[in-house]
Specification:
With 341 residues, the chain is α/β, with parallel strands linked by helices. Helices cover 48% and strands 18% of the residues. It is built from 12 helices and 12 strands. β9, α11 and β10 (294-297) form a beta-alpha-beta unit.
Length: 341
């Protein structure tokens, strides 16, 4: 089965595991005919996408727009730049627009400026507010596909979401913390960067559901609007600790983990269990030093690949439905931390 694509790209396109695709490509026994047909169809679709992009003579320039702390935007930039080199090289070029804090009006102004200037697609991490949804609708109306990244805008005209199942991630965090605290009780400090992000809200909903259903003796205190920055998040954490002597665990949805730990140290309070999200540089160092216990990680390169596929599919086949594809959540400890890029 001749082809020029990576096994992981064929697997992604076909919706199969890389091991299954490898068995098909190498003619190993135990593969159903239907599975082989899916692999052949996936290769054909990849060839069509590649031919369409290359024959157009264009590089697909896309814009990555994110309101997020720099530690996470650095990780996203690295993932997209790495995936550009592996994904049909020469087809995509990314323009990055990052800010740690943006007012909705500023974000809308940026999206409208990109729309008026022109782009082949927008990858967007933004709060789920009406103004942003309206800007997405204006981009879609002129044929610019928008893919949401790590946090969704489900009621907008975006064509696809690239990221993990955030509600399942929150449920996983509740299980980890609940199993550590058990019947001893205590209270979890849940930190959000902002209540405006749908992805963070979904994580919190999943977390609260499992705590309520399985670990009802554990309380929850929430802080929000620190925007993942150390200064603001640390101030909020310190105030929460001063007000509540029962807080002894952390579920960090929104980041600022060094500042949260510093607040516990200043208050001379122990942290029995700390669950965070994303293997950015800060969390790698904290995990290696055993200062946090678990990181819920999903592969940003998989998200980048998903976004590229959605945009290319819309450019080469206008009107075609874009299938949903969620990246898996991995529980990372100091003992199974994947190598950095």
């Amino acid at each position: 089965m001749a082809h020029s694509f990576l096994v992981k790209d064929i697997a992604f396109q076909a919706g199969l595991s890389t091991a299954t695709v490898d068995r098909v490509l190498n003619g190993r026994p135990g593969v159903r005919q239907q599975t082989e047909m899916r692999v052949r169809a996936a290769i054909a679709e990849l060839e069509k996408q590649q031919a369409g992009a290359i024959s157009s003579g264009r590089t697909l320039a896309i814009d990555i727009v994110m309101e997020t702390p720099q530690r996470f935007s650095d990780a996203v930039r690295a993932a997209f730049e790495a995936e550009i080199a592996a994904f049909l090289p020469g087809v995509f070029r990314c323009r990055f627009h990052f800010a740690e804090v943006m007012k909705p009006a500023e974000l809308v102004q940026l999206l409208d400026r990109i729309r008026l200037r022109g782009t082949h697609g927008i990858v967007l991490k933004a709060p789920d507010v009406a103004e942003v949804a309206a800007a997405v609708a204006r981009a879609d109306a002129v044929g610019i596909p928008v893919v949401t990244l790590v946090t969704d805008l489900p009621n907008s005209a975006r064509i696809a979401y690239a990221g993990a199942d955030n509600r399942a991630a929150g449920e996983t965090a509740a299980y980890l913390i609940g199993e550590v605290l058990g019947n001893h009780g205590g209270k979890v400090l849940v930190t959000l960067s902002s209540g405006r992000f749908r992805g963070e809200e979904e994580r919190e909903i999943g977390f609260r559901r499992i705590i309520r259903a399985r670990y009802s003796g554990i309380g929850i205190t929430e802080i929000s609007e620190g925007h993942g920055t150390d200064a603001a998040t640390g101030t909020l954490a310190a105030a929460a600790l001063a007000a509540d002597p029962d807080i002894n665990a952390v579920y960090s949805i929104g980041g600022g983990n060094r500042a949260v730990l510093a607040a516990f140290e200043a208050a001379e309070r122990p942290v029995r269990v700390f669950v965070a999200h994303d293997l950015d540089a800060d969390n790698r160092a904290l995990l290696a030093a055993r200062r946090i216990g678990f990181v819920l990680h999903h592969d940003l390169r998989t998200d980048a690949r998903s976004a590229f596929r959605a945009i290319m599919g819309r450019v080469t086949s206008p009107g075609r439905a874009i299938p949903a594809s969620l990246s898996s959540v991995e529980i990372v400890t100091p003992y199974n931390m994947p190598a950095g890029d």
